[in-house]
Amino acid sequence: MSTIGKTRSGSTELRRQKIDFSCGSCPDRTTQRRKSEANYDSESTEVLSSTDEEERWKDAARTAEIPAEYWHIQKLVKYIKGGNQTATIVSLCCLKDYDLQVQIHQFAIQDIGGIEVLVNLLECNDMKCRLGSLMILAEISSNIDIRKTIVDLGGVPLIVDILNSSAKDLKTMAGETLANISKVRLARKYVRQSGGIPKLVDLMDVKLAVLKTPMEELSLDEKESVNMASAGAKALWSLSDSKHNIEVMRKTGIVPLMARLLKSIHIEVVIPIMGTIQKCSSQAKFQLAITTEGMIADIVAHLHSTNLDLKMQCSIALYRCAKDPTTRDLVREAGGLEPLVMIIKDKANRDNKPLLSGATGAIWKCAATDANVHKLDSLRTINVLAQLLNDESDEVLTNVVGGIAECVRFKSNRNALRVAGGLPSLVALLNSSHAPLLENLAKALKECAEDRECMQILEELDAVRLIWSLLKNTDSRVQAYAAYAICPCVENASNSGELVRSLVGAMELVVGLLGSKDILVLSAVCAAIATIAKDTTNLAILTDLKVICKLAELVNTSDDLLRENLAAAIANCAGYGNNTQELGRMRAVTPIVGYMISNNPKVHRTCAMALEKLSADPRNCITMHQSGVVPFLLETLSSTDTDLQLASAGCLRNIRELALRAEECKLKIQD
Q1: What burial letters (b/e) apply to 290-319, b meaning 16+ CB within 10 Å?
Q2: Residue stretches of the chain with pLDDT short of 70
Q3: DSSP string, 65-100
Q4: Fewest CB atoms less than 10 Å from the CB: which of 180, 503, 595, 648?
């Protein structure tokens, strides 16, 4: 009796009769396929269709001379379709002997309708037939078109159902097959909906003693457990491209199993579980779980592996997790900075962009902690990063510049970067169009401009003009950090006033950005205006550009960063001409007084400075007094911040003088 006809549903025989041998598709599933193509899940960024290059290759492969193996494989598929149980098993075994990674062999199976036959076999009761079918599907599903065909034919629920089997080899092959098929977005959705994720997580429940024992010392059953865990990890690695699947995995209890599998000595287990970890680590909840389960030390330990794929996965995982300060400390304590620096130092790794990107990204994020920067200094990391500024990968450059930006917060590293000749390379990168890179460049150059020796070099390289041009960038974060970078550039330039005026349209561009809807951009631009306005000539130009009106429109804000920089801009602009009276007329005084209720000392400082300048106008003094500013100013007089004390005292003096003059006038009238 044919094995295909013996199914749980009893409908496979009828389905087999509908197969079109000439085209390899099933008419009754065509509608299903069209619907599924229209419903591809939008959870990840995977490209579903083959690239043009792949299509051209396939066309060339089909028009080339067809080898004899093509016809032999098609004969075997026909035997599987029409043979009895024994013939089916023998044909599957013979089919497995071919190299099914060769594309023409995959065409042979696909062209004669073999994919549907293999999917049908997944429903039969004979374990050998199902195992043989899975072994072939696992091989040929490396082809993206075959993956999609299996999904369209309803193969995913059938494979997920096999995970309920008690046979470990069956479950292993099911996991291997799902690992390939789940690279299709719709398949990831079907696996989740079919309840496949908890079953795959269960495959990874292997005893720690088995994971730590060499393969040659394990029993046959234990070897099968290790292989099954590897297959489950591979499948979950593919499934973790979906944020919905990641959440289901977390709720299913995958985290403790991940921590256990990381301790394995079997590389075939560690690589896929590390790949799963690095994808899951993009989620904040998983980042916390990775830290609390003590996985960081194990991840760091695997950085010493000779396997480059494993190193890459570990580096990317640390890159994503090191956003958390606790994780950054754990990486340092586990000795993780040394192997990361060794990876980027090794010139043999320069062509391995994913590895280089992961390692430089991990260094960048770890450098946000001061203690880590000091450790990186002892490893002369800034010199290595400076050498990588000539890399051609935008992603690598973004991470390298990000790492430099964190390191040059310290003067010693600014000197080291200058000596290493890194400044010209940084300035040259300002011509890039990659927004994340430009953002990090602005951060790095901002820190470098704090050093007068570095600033001299930046002036010679015309860096200020290039930084200013970033204000035209369409990315709001690039605009914001470029505006912040302008502040020290103008502050420390040899002739700051003339430098700004020499840039045609520079001040118009800055004032125009005060109309932005982005709070970060507004805060940064206000900081830039506060710096530019220190030059009287520049302040006159800003006043002609109606900067006072635009600043007054922003005073009703609750954002402390914007309050701080806006108050500083008003403090530096109010003293020119009748700007003080204009701000009072525009009802800007009372909202600024309200800034004093903030808990941020920096806001108090710039607010007091703005109020001191505004109090030069008697009407503003009256408004301040009526708004209840005096108790706040009396409180800030006790501050340890000298500038805050002086500004508060100056404002109180102006209010007091007005009150005394008013009292004198009152006495004269009474006399």
Answers
A1: bbeeebbebbbbbbebeeebbbbbbbbbbb
A2: 1-64, 83, 659, 662-671
A3: PPPHHHHHHHHHHHHHHHS-HHHHHHHHHHHHTS-T
A4: 503
- Predicted local confidence at residue 663, as pLDDT: 58
Q: Tokens representing 550?
A: 């635009």
The backbone torsions φ and ψ at residue 641, rounded to the nearest 5 degrees and listed phi first, read -80, 115
Per-residue confidence (pLDDT) for residue 176, from 0 to 100: 93
Would you state the pLDDT for residue 9?
A: 35
- Within 10 angstroms of residue 61's Cβ, the number of other Cβ atoms is 14
Both tokens of residue 107? 């065409």
**Identity of the amino acid at 346:** D
What HEC string does 441-453 produce? HHHHHHHHCCCHH
Does the CA dihedral 450-452-457-459 come out positive or negative?
A: positive
Q: What gap in Å lies between CA 299 and CA 5, rounded to an integer?
A: 50
Structure tokens at 595: 């800034």
Q: Is 427 helix (H, G, I), strand (E, B) or coil?
A: helix
Buried/exposed 607-646: b ≥16 CB within 10 Å, e otherwise: bbbbbbbbbebbebbbbbeebebeebbeebeebeeeebbe
Domains (range + CATH), the chain: 546-670 (1.25.10.10)
> Maximum CA pair distance of the chain?
126
Cα–Cα dist 140/123, whole Å? 19
Cα distance from N-terminal residue to C-terminal residue, the chain: 126
DSSP characters over 452-517: HHHHHHHHHTTHHHHHHHGGG-S-HHHHHHHHHHHHHHHHHSTTHHHHHHHSTTHHHHHHHGGG-S
